[in-house]
Design a protein that fits this description.
Blueprint: E1 2-6, H1 9-12, H2 17-32, E2 37-42, H3 48-51, E3 56-59, H4 65-79, E4 84-87, E5 103-107, H5 111-114, H6 121-137, E6 138-143, H7 146-155, E7 164-166, H8 180-191, E8 196-201, H9 210-221, E9 228-233, H10 239-250, E10 255-259, H11 266-272, E11 275-278, H12 287-294, E12 299-302, H13 307-311, E13 316-318, H14 323-335, H15 337-351, H16 356-373
Parallel strand pairs: 1-2, 1-4, 2-3, 4-5, 5-6, 6-7, 8-9, 8-11, 9-10, 11-12, 12-13
Helix pairs in contact: 2-16, 8-11, 9-14, 12-15
Protein backbone atom coordinates (compact mmCIF):
# COMPACT_ATOMS: atom_id res chain seq x y z
CA UNK A 1 0.00 0.00 0.00
CA UNK A 2 0.89 3.63 -0.45
CA UNK A 3 -0.10 5.41 2.76
CA UNK A 4 -0.14 9.14 3.36
CA UNK A 5 -0.13 10.60 6.88
CA UNK A 6 -0.91 14.20 7.77
CA UNK A 7 2.11 14.73 10.05
CA UNK A 8 1.86 18.50 10.40
CA UNK A 9 0.79 18.23 14.05
CA UNK A 10 4.28 17.00 14.95
CA UNK A 11 5.53 20.58 14.64
CA UNK A 12 2.31 22.61 14.69
CA UNK A 13 1.04 21.04 17.95
CA UNK A 14 4.32 20.05 19.59
CA UNK A 15 3.82 19.47 23.32
CA UNK A 16 0.08 18.75 23.03
CA UNK A 17 -1.58 15.36 23.20
CA UNK A 18 -2.25 15.23 19.46
CA UNK A 19 1.30 16.38 18.64
CA UNK A 20 2.77 13.71 20.93
CA UNK A 21 0.49 11.02 19.49
CA UNK A 22 1.32 11.90 15.88
CA UNK A 23 5.08 12.07 16.49
CA UNK A 24 5.35 8.75 18.33
CA UNK A 25 2.94 6.94 16.04
CA UNK A 26 4.63 8.05 12.81
CA UNK A 27 8.11 7.28 14.13
CA UNK A 28 7.17 3.74 15.21
CA UNK A 29 5.15 3.00 12.07
CA UNK A 30 8.08 4.00 9.86
CA UNK A 31 10.48 1.94 11.99
CA UNK A 32 8.33 -1.20 11.98
CA UNK A 33 6.76 -1.27 8.52
CA UNK A 34 9.07 -1.95 5.59
CA UNK A 35 6.27 -3.41 3.49
CA UNK A 36 4.19 -0.30 2.78
CA UNK A 37 5.33 3.01 1.29
CA UNK A 38 4.74 6.14 3.38
CA UNK A 39 4.29 9.77 2.35
CA UNK A 40 4.28 12.39 5.12
CA UNK A 41 2.55 15.75 4.79
CA UNK A 42 5.00 17.96 6.66
CA UNK A 43 5.31 21.54 7.81
CA UNK A 44 8.00 23.40 9.71
CA UNK A 45 11.45 22.24 10.70
CA UNK A 46 12.64 18.85 9.52
CA UNK A 47 13.39 16.36 12.33
CA UNK A 48 16.47 14.26 11.69
CA UNK A 49 15.08 11.00 13.11
CA UNK A 50 12.21 11.09 10.59
CA UNK A 51 14.45 11.96 7.65
CA UNK A 52 16.62 8.95 8.48
CA UNK A 53 13.58 6.65 8.19
CA UNK A 54 13.26 7.52 4.49
CA UNK A 55 9.61 8.44 3.97
CA UNK A 56 8.51 10.60 1.07
CA UNK A 57 7.92 14.17 2.31
CA UNK A 58 5.40 16.66 0.95
CA UNK A 59 6.10 20.10 2.36
CA UNK A 60 2.99 22.09 3.20
CA UNK A 61 2.12 25.13 5.27
CA UNK A 62 0.45 25.58 8.61
CA UNK A 63 -1.11 28.76 7.24
CA UNK A 64 -3.75 29.25 4.53
CA UNK A 65 -5.23 25.95 5.70
CA UNK A 66 -8.15 25.79 3.28
CA UNK A 67 -6.00 26.03 0.16
CA UNK A 68 -3.49 23.45 1.34
CA UNK A 69 -6.03 21.07 2.89
CA UNK A 70 -8.71 21.26 0.20
CA UNK A 71 -6.65 21.65 -2.98
CA UNK A 72 -2.85 21.38 -2.67
CA UNK A 73 -2.56 18.27 -0.48
CA UNK A 74 -5.30 16.13 -2.10
CA UNK A 75 -4.07 16.93 -5.62
CA UNK A 76 -0.55 15.76 -4.73
CA UNK A 77 -1.87 12.65 -2.96
CA UNK A 78 -3.92 11.84 -6.07
CA UNK A 79 -0.88 12.27 -8.30
CA UNK A 80 1.04 9.81 -6.13
CA UNK A 81 -1.79 7.22 -6.20
CA UNK A 82 -2.02 7.15 -2.41
CA UNK A 83 -4.20 4.22 -1.24
CA UNK A 84 -5.01 5.52 2.27
CA UNK A 85 -4.61 9.00 3.76
CA UNK A 86 -4.48 9.08 7.58
CA UNK A 87 -5.48 12.30 9.39
CA UNK A 88 -4.57 11.89 13.08
CA UNK A 89 -6.01 15.15 14.52
CA UNK A 90 -9.69 14.17 14.91
CA UNK A 91 -10.01 14.27 11.12
CA UNK A 92 -9.64 18.06 11.12
CA UNK A 93 -8.30 19.04 7.73
CA UNK A 94 -10.00 16.23 5.83
CA UNK A 95 -10.56 17.52 2.26
CA UNK A 96 -14.17 16.99 1.29
CA UNK A 97 -15.11 16.38 -2.34
CA UNK A 98 -12.23 14.06 -3.31
CA UNK A 99 -14.12 10.79 -3.56
CA UNK A 100 -11.19 8.88 -5.06
CA UNK A 101 -9.12 9.38 -1.86
CA UNK A 102 -9.64 6.89 0.95
CA UNK A 103 -9.43 8.47 4.39
CA UNK A 104 -8.50 7.04 7.78
CA UNK A 105 -9.02 9.37 10.75
CA UNK A 106 -8.11 9.16 14.42
CA UNK A 107 -10.98 10.37 16.57
CA UNK A 108 -9.51 10.85 20.05
CA UNK A 109 -12.78 11.83 21.73
CA UNK A 110 -16.11 13.57 21.16
CA UNK A 111 -15.78 16.12 23.98
CA UNK A 112 -17.36 18.95 21.91
CA UNK A 113 -20.55 16.85 21.71
CA UNK A 114 -20.55 15.77 25.34
CA UNK A 115 -19.11 18.78 27.22
CA UNK A 116 -19.34 21.68 24.72
CA UNK A 117 -18.99 24.26 27.49
CA UNK A 118 -15.37 23.11 28.04
CA UNK A 119 -14.24 23.73 24.43
CA UNK A 120 -13.13 27.01 22.85
CA UNK A 121 -15.84 28.57 20.64
CA UNK A 122 -13.83 28.49 17.40
CA UNK A 123 -12.84 24.83 17.69
CA UNK A 124 -16.33 23.90 18.92
CA UNK A 125 -17.97 25.47 15.86
CA UNK A 126 -15.59 23.76 13.44
CA UNK A 127 -15.82 20.39 15.20
CA UNK A 128 -19.62 20.31 15.26
CA UNK A 129 -19.79 21.52 11.66
CA UNK A 130 -17.23 19.12 10.22
CA UNK A 131 -17.42 15.94 12.31
CA UNK A 132 -20.54 14.43 10.65
CA UNK A 133 -18.89 14.82 7.24
CA UNK A 134 -15.57 13.49 8.56
CA UNK A 135 -17.26 10.35 9.88
CA UNK A 136 -19.32 9.90 6.69
CA UNK A 137 -16.28 10.28 4.42
CA UNK A 138 -13.92 8.03 6.40
CA UNK A 139 -13.11 4.54 5.16
CA UNK A 140 -12.02 3.63 8.68
CA UNK A 141 -11.65 5.21 12.12
CA UNK A 142 -8.94 4.75 14.73
CA UNK A 143 -9.69 5.71 18.31
CA UNK A 144 -7.77 5.52 21.55
CA UNK A 145 -10.06 3.56 23.88
CA UNK A 146 -13.08 1.27 23.90
CA UNK A 147 -14.91 4.06 25.69
CA UNK A 148 -14.28 6.49 22.81
CA UNK A 149 -15.36 3.80 20.35
CA UNK A 150 -18.68 3.48 22.19
CA UNK A 151 -19.12 7.27 22.09
CA UNK A 152 -18.56 7.31 18.32
CA UNK A 153 -21.15 4.56 17.82
CA UNK A 154 -23.58 6.36 20.15
CA UNK A 155 -23.45 9.65 18.24
CA UNK A 156 -23.00 8.19 14.74
CA UNK A 157 -25.22 5.12 14.81
CA UNK A 158 -24.97 4.41 11.09
CA UNK A 159 -21.20 3.95 11.04
CA UNK A 160 -20.10 0.28 10.82
CA UNK A 161 -18.63 -0.93 14.11
CA UNK A 162 -16.18 -3.22 12.31
CA UNK A 163 -14.53 -0.18 10.72
CA UNK A 164 -13.60 1.37 14.10
CA UNK A 165 -10.26 0.17 15.49
CA UNK A 166 -9.01 0.79 19.04
CA UNK A 167 -5.31 1.72 19.16
CA UNK A 168 -4.48 2.75 22.76
CA UNK A 169 -1.94 5.45 23.51
CA UNK A 170 1.34 5.01 25.37
CA UNK A 171 3.99 7.05 27.15
CA UNK A 172 7.31 8.13 25.71
CA UNK A 173 10.41 6.22 26.78
CA UNK A 174 11.53 9.09 29.04
CA UNK A 175 8.76 8.18 31.51
CA UNK A 176 10.40 5.70 33.85
CA UNK A 177 11.06 5.52 37.60
CA UNK A 178 13.80 7.83 38.85
CA UNK A 179 15.26 7.83 42.40
CA UNK A 180 12.49 9.35 44.55
CA UNK A 181 14.68 11.17 47.07
CA UNK A 182 16.90 12.68 44.38
CA UNK A 183 13.88 13.73 42.31
CA UNK A 184 12.20 15.27 45.37
CA UNK A 185 15.32 17.33 46.15
CA UNK A 186 15.57 18.57 42.55
CA UNK A 187 11.93 19.69 42.61
CA UNK A 188 12.29 21.30 46.05
CA UNK A 189 15.30 23.30 44.88
CA UNK A 190 13.63 24.32 41.64
CA UNK A 191 10.47 25.64 43.30
CA UNK A 192 11.95 26.68 46.66
CA UNK A 193 10.10 24.58 49.24
CA UNK A 194 11.15 21.90 51.75
CA UNK A 195 8.23 19.46 52.04
CA UNK A 196 6.77 16.51 50.15
CA UNK A 197 4.23 17.24 47.41
CA UNK A 198 1.22 15.99 45.51
CA UNK A 199 1.17 16.57 41.76
CA UNK A 200 -1.25 17.47 38.99
CA UNK A 201 -0.15 17.68 35.33
CA UNK A 202 -2.54 18.65 32.54
CA UNK A 203 -4.83 21.30 31.16
CA UNK A 204 -7.15 23.66 32.97
CA UNK A 205 -10.41 23.20 31.10
CA UNK A 206 -13.28 22.89 33.56
CA UNK A 207 -13.66 19.21 32.57
CA UNK A 208 -10.25 18.57 34.18
CA UNK A 209 -11.78 19.48 37.57
CA UNK A 210 -8.65 21.20 38.88
CA UNK A 211 -10.74 23.45 41.14
CA UNK A 212 -12.22 20.30 42.67
CA UNK A 213 -8.67 19.05 43.30
CA UNK A 214 -7.71 22.34 44.94
CA UNK A 215 -10.75 22.32 47.20
CA UNK A 216 -10.22 18.66 48.14
CA UNK A 217 -6.55 19.31 48.95
CA UNK A 218 -7.48 22.26 51.16
CA UNK A 219 -9.98 20.06 53.05
CA UNK A 220 -7.37 17.35 53.62
CA UNK A 221 -4.23 19.35 54.36
CA UNK A 222 -5.17 20.36 57.91
CA UNK A 223 -5.19 16.69 58.90
CA UNK A 224 -1.83 15.69 57.38
CA UNK A 225 0.81 14.52 59.83
CA UNK A 226 3.49 16.27 57.77
CA UNK A 227 3.80 19.31 55.54
CA UNK A 228 2.56 18.79 52.00
CA UNK A 229 2.45 21.01 48.92
CA UNK A 230 0.26 20.65 45.85
CA UNK A 231 2.14 21.31 42.59
CA UNK A 232 -0.07 22.16 39.61
CA UNK A 233 1.73 21.91 36.27
CA UNK A 234 0.40 23.56 33.12
CA UNK A 235 0.49 26.72 31.04
CA UNK A 236 -1.17 29.58 32.91
CA UNK A 237 -3.61 31.20 30.54
CA UNK A 238 -7.40 31.50 30.36
CA UNK A 239 -8.87 28.91 32.79
CA UNK A 240 -5.47 28.29 34.36
CA UNK A 241 -5.02 31.96 35.12
CA UNK A 242 -8.46 32.07 36.72
CA UNK A 243 -7.53 29.16 38.99
CA UNK A 244 -4.28 30.88 39.91
CA UNK A 245 -6.23 33.99 40.90
CA UNK A 246 -8.66 31.83 42.89
CA UNK A 247 -5.81 30.32 44.93
CA UNK A 248 -4.19 33.75 45.29
CA UNK A 249 -7.43 35.08 46.79
CA UNK A 250 -7.29 32.37 49.48
CA UNK A 251 -3.94 33.73 50.71
CA UNK A 252 -2.27 30.32 51.16
CA UNK A 253 1.20 29.15 50.16
CA UNK A 254 0.67 25.37 50.03
CA UNK A 255 -0.31 25.35 46.33
CA UNK A 256 2.33 26.07 43.68
CA UNK A 257 1.49 26.77 40.04
CA UNK A 258 4.62 25.89 38.10
CA UNK A 259 3.52 27.15 34.69
CA UNK A 260 4.59 25.28 31.56
CA UNK A 261 7.21 22.57 32.15
CA UNK A 262 9.31 20.94 29.42
CA UNK A 263 8.55 17.26 28.81
CA UNK A 264 12.14 16.35 29.76
CA UNK A 265 11.52 17.59 33.32
CA UNK A 266 8.20 15.79 33.86
CA UNK A 267 9.66 12.36 34.80
CA UNK A 268 11.51 14.02 37.68
CA UNK A 269 8.31 15.76 38.82
CA UNK A 270 6.32 12.52 38.64
CA UNK A 271 9.02 10.45 40.38
CA UNK A 272 9.47 12.88 43.26
CA UNK A 273 5.75 13.18 44.04
CA UNK A 274 4.05 11.45 46.97
CA UNK A 275 1.11 10.84 44.62
CA UNK A 276 -0.37 12.06 41.36
CA UNK A 277 -3.99 13.27 41.43
CA UNK A 278 -6.12 13.59 38.28
CA UNK A 279 -9.87 14.01 39.01
CA UNK A 280 -11.00 14.66 35.42
CA UNK A 281 -14.67 14.46 34.45
CA UNK A 282 -13.99 13.21 30.92
CA UNK A 283 -11.05 11.68 29.03
CA UNK A 284 -10.86 9.93 25.69
CA UNK A 285 -7.81 8.12 27.07
CA UNK A 286 -6.10 10.02 29.90
CA UNK A 287 -2.34 10.01 29.30
CA UNK A 288 -1.05 11.82 32.46
CA UNK A 289 -2.13 9.02 34.86
CA UNK A 290 -0.29 6.52 32.65
CA UNK A 291 2.80 8.77 32.67
CA UNK A 292 2.71 8.84 36.49
CA UNK A 293 2.23 5.06 36.65
CA UNK A 294 5.23 4.63 34.32
CA UNK A 295 7.29 6.60 36.86
CA UNK A 296 6.10 4.31 39.70
CA UNK A 297 4.09 7.07 41.36
CA UNK A 298 0.74 6.14 42.98
CA UNK A 299 -2.28 7.63 41.22
CA UNK A 300 -5.66 8.92 42.40
CA UNK A 301 -7.96 9.45 39.45
CA UNK A 302 -11.58 9.33 38.28
CA UNK A 303 -13.86 6.32 37.99
CA UNK A 304 -15.55 7.67 34.84
CA UNK A 305 -15.17 7.60 31.03
CA UNK A 306 -12.02 5.88 29.71
CA UNK A 307 -9.84 6.25 32.80
CA UNK A 308 -10.70 2.92 34.54
CA UNK A 309 -10.05 1.19 31.20
CA UNK A 310 -6.48 2.52 31.31
CA UNK A 311 -5.67 2.15 35.01
CA UNK A 312 -7.87 -0.85 35.93
CA UNK A 313 -7.24 -1.73 39.61
CA UNK A 314 -3.82 -0.07 39.71
CA UNK A 315 -5.01 3.33 40.96
CA UNK A 316 -7.38 4.73 43.55
CA UNK A 317 -10.57 5.56 41.64
CA UNK A 318 -12.84 8.31 42.93
CA UNK A 319 -16.10 9.95 41.86
CA UNK A 320 -14.78 13.29 40.53
CA UNK A 321 -17.78 15.33 41.67
CA UNK A 322 -17.48 14.03 45.25
CA UNK A 323 -15.03 16.42 46.92
CA UNK A 324 -15.23 14.57 50.24
CA UNK A 325 -14.36 11.27 48.53
CA UNK A 326 -11.43 12.90 46.76
CA UNK A 327 -10.27 14.62 49.95
CA UNK A 328 -10.37 11.42 52.02
CA UNK A 329 -8.49 9.55 49.26
CA UNK A 330 -5.79 12.23 49.24
CA UNK A 331 -5.50 11.96 53.05
CA UNK A 332 -5.25 8.17 52.89
CA UNK A 333 -2.55 8.12 50.20
CA UNK A 334 -0.48 10.69 52.10
CA UNK A 335 -0.73 8.92 55.46
CA UNK A 336 -0.59 5.25 54.41
CA UNK A 337 2.85 4.29 53.13
CA UNK A 338 1.92 0.64 52.53
CA UNK A 339 -0.99 1.74 50.32
CA UNK A 340 1.27 4.12 48.38
CA UNK A 341 3.83 1.40 47.69
CA UNK A 342 1.16 -1.11 46.69
CA UNK A 343 -0.60 1.27 44.29
CA UNK A 344 2.74 2.45 42.85
CA UNK A 345 3.84 -1.13 42.13
CA UNK A 346 0.50 -2.10 40.57
CA UNK A 347 0.49 1.05 38.46
CA UNK A 348 4.01 0.47 37.19
CA UNK A 349 3.22 -3.13 36.17
CA UNK A 350 0.07 -1.95 34.42
CA UNK A 351 1.98 0.77 32.55
CA UNK A 352 4.28 -1.84 30.99
CA UNK A 353 1.30 -3.16 29.01
CA UNK A 354 1.28 0.03 26.88
CA UNK A 355 3.87 0.97 24.27
CA UNK A 356 4.03 3.07 21.11
CA UNK A 357 5.29 -0.04 19.31
CA UNK A 358 2.02 -1.77 20.21
CA UNK A 359 0.07 1.31 19.07
CA UNK A 360 1.94 1.32 15.76
CA UNK A 361 1.42 -2.42 15.18
CA UNK A 362 -2.31 -2.08 15.83
CA UNK A 363 -2.40 0.91 13.46
CA UNK A 364 -0.57 -0.92 10.66
CA UNK A 365 -2.98 -3.84 11.10
CA UNK A 366 -5.93 -1.43 10.93
CA UNK A 367 -4.59 0.09 7.70
CA UNK A 368 -4.52 -3.39 6.19
CA UNK A 369 -8.05 -4.26 7.35
CA UNK A 370 -9.47 -0.95 6.11
CA UNK A 371 -7.77 -1.31 2.72
CA UNK A 372 -9.08 -4.87 2.33
CA UNK A 373 -12.62 -3.65 2.99
CA UNK A 374 -12.58 -1.11 0.15
CA UNK A 375 -14.58 -1.81 -2.98
CA UNK A 376 -11.45 -1.57 -5.11
CA UNK A 377 -10.02 -4.79 -3.66
Amino acid sequence: MKIGIDSRSINLHSGTGIGTYTKNLVKEVLTLDNKNKYTLIWTGEMIKEFNNLNPDFIMSSGKHGRFFENIYIPEILNSKDIDLYHIPQNGMGLPFGYENLNYVVTIHDLIPYIMPQTVGPGYLKRFLRDMPNIIENSSGILTVSEFSKRDILRFFKGYPEDKIFVTPLATSEIYKPLPKDTSLKIVQDKFNFDSSYLLYVGGFSSRKNVKGLIDAFLKAKGSFSKKMKLLIVGSLKDDGLNLFKYVESLNIDDIIFTGYIEDSVLPTLYSGATAFVYPSYYEGFGLPPLEAMSCKTPVITSNVTSIPEVTKDSSILIEPSDILNLSSSIFEIVENEKLRLDIAEKGYKRSLQFSWRQTANKTISAYSEIYKSLDII
